[in-house]
């Protein structure tokens, strides 16, 4: 299917970030799967880091719902990506790929928190990309709480807020 410029402008891309394999909890994985399903139902396309943990969970949910999930991989091998991705992009730049994920997202859902997710949240804050959190723990840096994540009540709330923020951002950018 070929999309016109106005069709593409109506589509929103939602980044989903969170701990990878070995760091994400089973609950975070399941939340990510639910978020993926709900994002597809809401008309969103998903961008993630393409590896395990939360990233695999969201890709699995997107696949189950028949949507598109693009994984931006840190390395040079597509085989590094999880089995549920629709598209695996080999960035070959390690964790610097986090900036690509943020730049490619109209809004972000963060599930869980660790150093990698904090970096992406800070990048999003700097670039004006709205971030909605599930199972998010506020972070303090130099005695100051890092703001920038709107904590959502549940996956449906996070998705509704992210899609609304993304649509507003797409309209503003026209």
UniProtKB/TrEMBL annotation:
By its UniProt entry, which InterPro entries does this protein fall under?
Answer: CHP00725, LDcluster4, LOG_family_nucleotidases
What is any one of the record's Gene Ontology cellular component terms?
cytosol
One Pfam family name from the record?
LDcluster4
Q: Which PANTHER family match?
A: CYTOKININ RIBOSIDE 5'-MONOPHOSPHATE PHOSPHORIBOHYDROLASE, LYSINE DECARBOXYLASE-LIKE PROTEIN
| NCBIfam families cross-referenced by the UniProt entry | TIGR00725 family protein
Recorded protein name is TIGR00725 family protein
């Amino acid at each position: 299917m070929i999309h016109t410029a106005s069709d593409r402008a109506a589509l929103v891309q939602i980044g989903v970030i969170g701990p990878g394999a070995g760091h994400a909890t089973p609950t975070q994985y399941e939340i990510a799967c639910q978020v993926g399903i709900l994002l597809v139902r809401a008309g969103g396309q998903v961008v993630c880091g393409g590896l395990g943990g939360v990233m695999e969970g969201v890709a699995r949910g997107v696949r189950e719902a028949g949507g598109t999930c693009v994984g931006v991989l840190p390395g040079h091998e597509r085989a590094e990506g999880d089995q549920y991705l629709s598209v695996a992009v080999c960035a070959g730049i390690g964790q610097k790929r986090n900036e690509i994920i943020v730049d490619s997202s109209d809004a972000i859902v963060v599930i869980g928190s660790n150093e990698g997710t904090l970096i992406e949240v800070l990048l999003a804050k700097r670039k004006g990309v709205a971030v909605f959190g599930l199972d998010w723990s506020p972070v303090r840096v130099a005695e100051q709480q890092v703001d920038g994540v709107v904590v959502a009540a549940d996956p449906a709330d996070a998705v509704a807020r992210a899609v609304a923020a993304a649509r507003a951002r797409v309209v503003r950018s026209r």
